[in-house]
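pasting for ref
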Amino acid sequence: MSNAAGSLRVERTTKTLRALALEKLRSAILTQHFKPGARLVERTLCEELGVSRTVVREALRHLEAEGLVESVPQQGPVVARVDRDAASQLYELRAALEALAARAAAEIASAADIESMSRSLDRIEQGYASGDMSAVLEATTAFYESMFLSGGKTVAWTIVQSLNARITTLRALTIGSSGRNRQGPLEMRRILEALKRRDAAAAEVAALEHVRAAGKIALTLLRDGDR
């Protein structure tokens, strides 16, 4: 009986280490501690993270599935580079989906849902003020999750989640650009104010303008980076 019980024991420590290693590596990539094209050397990562090579390999495989890491012949795993054409298409998808979600949220979101978005936006502004870009990214994701789900756009949110790693990579690129700490939250504030007024048309327009502004910055940065 004791052997059977032992074989079913959940290894909480091991799973926690794997989750933490994945979270740390993902954050390091999204905040550009590891820049696009940078090699991710297993031995070095093991030393920096204080975990085994098995844990690092599993984390890298997970990040490769998310599109944040790619395997390059003769080099091994590297931080995935963002392709300008792919980025352009992602912003087109974001614009369509977020405009749809904003319109729906303005029509049916509850007051509690809108208040949740307001709190997320407050956290975005606080993150910018303190220079905590990880907090900005986390709160931005929370804002959009509330907007999509409160508008009943669950399928659209599933699509966004499948692209979320790539979207967040581009978002990490744009939030560090000059003046984005002020302009980004201002654009999102316009979305929020339209939601509060239950003005579906204005919410849709504000969402479109926000994505298009971010897309313009990202594509410019990517173009300049190719020079």
